[in-house]
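Justification of computing resources. Each target in the renewal requires a structure prediction run like the one illustrated here; the chain below, 120 residues long, is used simply to show the kind of job we budget for.
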Amino acid sequence: MGHSKLKARQRRHTRVRKKVYGTTEKPRLSVFKSLSHIYAQLIDDTTGKTLLTASTTEKGAMNGLKHGGNKEAAKKIGTNIAERALEKNITKVVFDRGGYRYHGCIQALANAAREKGLQF
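Resulting structure tokens:
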């Protein structure tokens, strides 16, 4: 059953990726989550390069958190990626939910990034 769930998410992600495209001025904020961690990265699809990353696997990212796969961790990663983007003068992004439903951790990460100043 887990294998078919993964395939279904990957199909949803390819559907989303047909419409979502990151440029140098407006990179793509891509989100991936596992059961124990959450990852976010800003990607410029014109050059195919990752501009910034933030995840719960980094040193110091888990300060005060017991688990890296919950909403609190997602909020922290959302604020981290937004702060790093604003340092590089990136204010507008395109949100790529990665085939996940927009609720829970994905929604918490997006709302935290918006609160810190990213526009999408």
